[in-house]
Amino acid sequence: MADTVYKYLKLQNRPYNINEIVSNLHNEYGKQAVQKAMDKLVSEGKIFEKVYGKQKIYCPVQDTSHEIEELMRIDNELQAHANEVESKYQELEREIKVQEAFLSSMKSCITIEEARKQKAIIQERITVMTNKLDALMEASGTEDLTETKRKTEAALNEYSREYVKRKRLCTEILDCILDNYPGSKTELYEEIGIELKIVE
């Protein structure tokens, strides 16, 4: 297997990291096996490795007949390749931090369950007030409190609309998080503390 890897590197004559080699060999060999082959080739002096940040880059050892300019070109190519890999790695790290911050902010927001409880409490209070209003109207024998009752019913409708709006907003936010969340919907809801049947 080491011979196969070496022939490929000699043919391409350019730097690669371990993941690229595994991929370019069409995943015929596992990453661990390829890594062992690379270590063997390095120890035999057939290839050399250079470490750039968190990345190891491999390149075949050039013939001594190569001119200095060619060796410098290869070294520059190694550096450019390593810089590109490191840049992509840092970009992924930044994206992960953004998603983690977003998830953390979601945990501090009011949940659908809490909004539902608040709605139930408000509805109960409105019902009590409406019953008292009906009793007063019946006792007085007048319709002077009709407007107050209408406003109370309007307030109930407003609270109901607000609950529906918050539920829809929360559902949209959760769907957005799920696009980048590594787990399932159930796992996300359990982590945040939301019951699945409430969201649905």
UniProtKB/TrEMBL annotation:
Residues 3-59 form the Homologous-pairing protein 2 winged helix domain. Residues 147-195 form the Leucine zipper with capping helix domain. Residues 75-162 form a coiled coil. GO terms for cellular component: condensed nuclear chromosome; DNA recombinase auxiliary factor complex. Its main location: nucleus. GO terms for molecular function: double-stranded DNA binding; recombinase activator activity. It holds the Pfam family LZ3wCH. PANTHER family: HOMOLOGOUS-PAIRING PROTEIN 2 HOMOLOG, TBP-1 INTERACTING PROTEIN. Belongs to the HOP2 family. This is Homologous-pairing protein 2 homolog. It comes from Eufriesea mexicana.
